[in-house]
Amino acid sequence: MSDPLTDIDALADEYWAHYLDTYPTEAHLLGDYAKAGRFEQASRAAEDREIDALREFARRADAFDDGALDEKQRITRAVLAADATSKADLLEARLAEIAPADPIFGMQVSMPIVTGMLALPTAEVAEALADTYRGVAAHYRDQVERLREGKARGWLPAAFAVEDTVKQIDAILDSPVSDDGLLRTTPTPDGFDADAWRARLEEVISSDVRPAMAALRDALRDEVLADARPEDKVGLRWLEGGDAAYDATLRYFTTTTKTAQEIHDLGLAQVEKLADEYRALGPEVVGSDDLATIFDAMRNDPKLHFSNGQDLVDQSEVAMQRAWDAMPDWFETLPQAPCGVAGTMTGPKAFYFPPATDGSRGGTFFVNIDDPDSWGIFELESMAFHEGIPGHHLQLAIAGELQGVPEFRKHIHNSAYAEGWGLYTERLSDEMGLYSGPVDRMGMYAADSMRACRLVVDTGLHALGWSRQQAIDFMVDNSPLKESMCRPEIDRYIVSPGQATSYMVGRVEIQRMRAEAEARQGDGFSIKAFHSAVLDNGSLPLGVLDDVVRTRLP
Fold it and tell me: InterPro entries under this entry (predicted)?
């Protein structure tokens, strides 16, 4: 029998089982089909139960004596305690009361994408999808109640988010059920009566999901919109208790104790540094070192933009293959799972889905090809390196294939670690000589501009009280993004407070850890060893990662 005072691994297994039970869709995506047919709950009661459970996990983790644990167990204890605490803090911010008004990542946007990723390996799993969709309908109905709870205490979403969500739901409800995005599933098993099954799904969507969506639409339009926050008060600071809620988001997403003002100032410093880099490379790319001229060319020169969506997919595949060929010189461990590229007409501009643990699906870099003209030729390679190789795919696939660590550490997501690594690899790719030329290197600066501006505008909106237009203007003035691209970016930061700060905070911290390791080790420093120290323990809070790097590279 294990010793309860030293068996942190048993607690970690219990924590992971709890996570999969709470997030059955995530379990399905990872290839665990035992919970197929269930869906996440959104009620206040479910949220309270989860907060209590997380607090108890954190308490139990904190009770362990580090002196009785080995190195891997100490890391496990620290990660579990930090993760459970920050998640509980975030849930206690009650952002679920305004979350249903979300035209960027809301259920009406995300579920058709998720549906297309849910493997259906057996008839039983396929049949369970009808129950999953009934759970989706229940989730929508719970969101209605959360909106009402928020309104009762003066917590109301931004008006534009309400209006845009209503429009999206209207468009879905006005379309034929036979065209519903929830019917765009993965292939069914051989010999399965897919037509009869599809008819059963259509009936659930028609009789349960769509009425629940309509109820959410009605609540947003008829109960919330009239009192929703105007354009000049879209940030959390305009809500009672909003400052504390925003602080919780920053702790959760950055895994640091940096204040909003510290993050704001860091962003301003990065913006200033990037201006000098643009001016140095500008003459070679656009024939000028004038920042306004450089930005104008990057926004408007047709020669610097795509016109064909398939080109985005094809060139991403070429870039990632070039990166893969260079991996052995920079990394000790390479993932077994492949990484593919797929075009999509919905969702963010680019995003990544990790492999399934059962090997049924590799990693996938999704590139949005709906509006190819919005893609600068210069930005594609940096995006492919960030989302695919050596970015998120290398990071998440290696984590999923780790041996000798608790399962939850293979899959847990710390945004500052994950996005910080992705952004770090954009600059690393320059060191590796992966960019095709000066134009593509300029795209690396463009990606940095977006992430640096995020620090300024996210904190500006939610801590300093900026208006929606003030944030848009700052990003237009300090990056090569067109205003038409800045607007949805700003809207994303408004409806997802704090998350956008994780990228540059994480990148800066990883770079700091590397610089300090280089200074400690001098000629003995190995970039391969540094990358192993960063990657071979899974996703870590930045403080824990710092300790690991110092231990591994003294």
Answer: DUF885
